[in-house]
Every structure is written in structure tokens, then in C-alpha cells.
């Protein structure tokens, strides 16, 4: 599998904002796959319509080009989706392990700060 631009980042250094951005990226990946599917379905239906409705050789040839292109677009979109999904799965496993520890540290630091404010004498 080829390397992705953000493979250089250490997931152990992520903060909550980074994990939330990762979740948004996963949803964007799914939305992009659906767009590929919608495009391929449109091309396929246009191709079948050209083949079935029009009788000219040009229309039938163009229809077959659309059908073949639709299959290609769907395969390309599916491969990209799977590639990105496998990358995100690895990070999701780290998220389940790292994020609770990180949140616990943040909540402990916030609780200590609030206790310090409560214990401080008011002027």
C-alpha cells in the first residue's frame, strides 16, 4: 500500500481535536464513495438508455462507452474507499486505546485547576 501524506504523524501525539478531525475524514471518505456510486449509476443508466432507445450506431457506441466507463468509475471509487478505510481502521484501533487515557488526563488537569481556583482566597 502506498504511503499517505499524513502517515508521518504520530497518533500518540493526537489531541481530541485531531481525533474529531479523523472522524470527519472517515465520514468524508464514505460520502466520496457514495458520490462515485452515484456517478457510475448515472453513467450506466445513460448508457443503457442510449443503447435501448436510439437506433443509430453512434448512440449505441456511445452508450456502451458510458456503460464501460460506469463500471470503471465504480471500481476506481471502491478501490480508493477500501484503501482509505483500511488506513482509518488502524487509527481507529489506536483511538480506542489512546483517547480515553488522554481524556482522563485532560479532565484531571481541569479538575485540579478548578480545585486550585476554589481554594484560592478571593480579594
Pairing-aware structural class of the strands and helices?
A: mainly alpha
Low-confidence stretches: none
How does the major sheet shape up? none
Mean pLDDT, all residues: 81
Q: Give the strand tally.
A: 0
**Separate helix tally:** 2
Give the terminus-to-terminus CA distance.
62 Å
What letter string, H or E per element, gives the SSE order? Answer: HH
- Helix amount, in percent? over 70%
Backbone CA Rg: 25 Å
Shape: rod-shaped
**Strand content bin:** under 5%
Outline:
The chain contains 2 helices and no strands. It is mainly alpha-helical.
Could you walk me through the main structural features you see in this protein, from its secondary elements to its overall organization?
It is a single chain. With 123 residues, this protein is mainly alpha-helical. 82% of the residues lie in helices and 0% in strands. The protein has two helices and no strands. It has helices spanning 16-53, 57-119. α1 packs antiparallel against α2 (57-119). The longest helix is centred in the last third of the chain and has 63 residues, at 57-119. The chain is rod-shaped and about 90 Å long. The mean pLDDT is 81.
Amino acid at each position: 500500500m502506498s504511503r499517505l501524506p499524513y502517515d508521518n504523524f504520530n497518533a500518540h501525539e493526537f489531541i481530541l481535536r485531531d481525533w474529531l478531525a479523523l472522524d470527519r475524514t472517515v465520514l468524508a471518505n464514505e460520502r466520496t464513495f457514495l458520490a462515485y456510486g452515484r456517478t457510475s449509476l448515472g453513467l450506466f443508466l445513460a448508457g443503457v438508455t442510449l443503447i435501448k432507445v436510439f437506433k443509430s450506431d453512434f448512440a449505441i457506441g456511445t452508450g456502451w462507452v458510458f456503460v464501460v466507463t460506469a463500471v470503471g468509475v465504480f471500481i476506481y471509487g471502491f478501490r480508493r474507499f477500501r484503501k482509505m478505510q483500511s488506513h482509518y481502521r488502524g487509527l481507529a484501533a489506536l483511538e480506542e486505546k489512546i483517547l480515553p487515557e488522554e481524556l482522563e488526563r485532560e479532565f484531571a488537569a481541569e479538575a485540579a485547576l478548578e480545585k486550585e481556583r476554589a481554594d484560592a482566597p478571593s480579594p
